[in-house]
Amino acid sequence: MARCYSVPVPNRHPSIPHLWLVSDARNDAVLEQAMARLPRASGVIFRHHHLSDGPRKARFRAISRIARRRGHLVVLAADVATARRWGADGAYGAPARLAQGPALLRLVTVHSHQELAAAHRARANAVLISPVFATRSHPGGKSLGVLRFHLLAAHARVPVIALGGMTRATARRLHTTRWAAIDGLSGESDKSPTA
């Protein structure tokens, strides 16, 4: 019976990268090295909420230059108008935050069927279904697991990116090629819980 949930999520939008490195205070010191290890044309989600506006914008510009030299897309955790103003390739966040604004790549985080429907209304180009597995970002938090991830992903009308506890090993376990991580793509062991 478990085999019926091991079908890979279809690749209906090949222009959406398969791997996404998510920036955070935890991986800032190794961010450049992590981007260099990503396959060309991967994605970087720039969060860096630990910085105030000026330093955050300066760090975003530095990371964007490096990422673009490697052919990576750079998406800013912000509303769509701010992402466009900063020169990002897209915006990342909750459906309500991304529902308005100019045409730009939208990556929307979802945790439930209700949020998935809201992501569709917000013109999401892809959804990050989270958290699939236990993460360091939210210790003790409830995760979806393989079955609930696939049940939710089956209702998505856009590409699905797995987030939460993702490493190369958990991506294989999940039977997906599209995934995002903080630690799992920053040089941490595949055996440790990641974000």
UniProtKB/TrEMBL annotation:
Coiled-coil features, chain-numbered ranges: none
Source taxonomy: Bacteria, Pseudomonadati, Pseudomonadota, Alphaproteobacteria, Sphingomonadales
Positions of the Thiamine phosphate synthase/TenI domain: 29-177
Entry-linked Pfam families: TMP-TENI
Stated name of the protein: Thiamine phosphate synthase
Xref: InterPro entries: Aldolase_TIM, ThiamineP_synth_sf, ThiamineP_synth_TenI
One of the GO BP terms on file: thiamine biosynthetic process
